[in-house]
Design goal:
Layout lengths: L9 H5 L2 H11 L2 H6 L5 H8 L3 H13 L4 E4 L2 E3 L2 H9 L25
Antiparallel strand pairs: 1-2
Helix pairs in contact: 2-5, 4-5
Length: about 110
């Protein structure tokens, strides 16, 4: 029988925000866009073809988890973890089969993670 201090934190275990945000950043090639010099949120969203505000929320969460850094408001940089994300992206399915952020184009429906 479990004691009170042995209780599992189910909320933490069920939180899918971080894996979902990692998936989105990887499939949108955010680490590669940053490496190419696109560091502002508007530039990144345009290069990735997604909504700026949604991408900013994703990157903000990943910064809080130690993936990417925010050098100044709305300006992002790669760190070691983001570099690793770029490497594993090659093993993920293509963007067409992956979760993506809403686009600013109303005609295209996109699911969110």
């Amino acid at each position: 029988m479990l004691e009170d201090e042995d209780i599992v934190d189910l909320e933490r275990m069920l939180d899918l925000a971080t894996p979902c945000c990692l998936w989105v950043a990887a499939t949108l090639r955010i680490p590669e866009h940053i490496a190419a010099g696109r560091t502002g949120i508007a530039e990144l969203a345009a290069a990735a073809g997604c909504d700026r505000d949604a991408l900013h929320a994703v990157l903000g969460h990943l910064v809080s988890q130690g993936v990417f850094t925010e050098e100044s408001p709305g300006r992002f940089a790669r760190n070691w973890a983001a570099g690793q994300l770029a490497k594993i992206r090659q093993r993920l399915p293509s963007r067409s089969s992956a979760a993506s952020l809403p686009t600013s184009r109303p005609a295209r429906s996109a699911s969110t993670c």
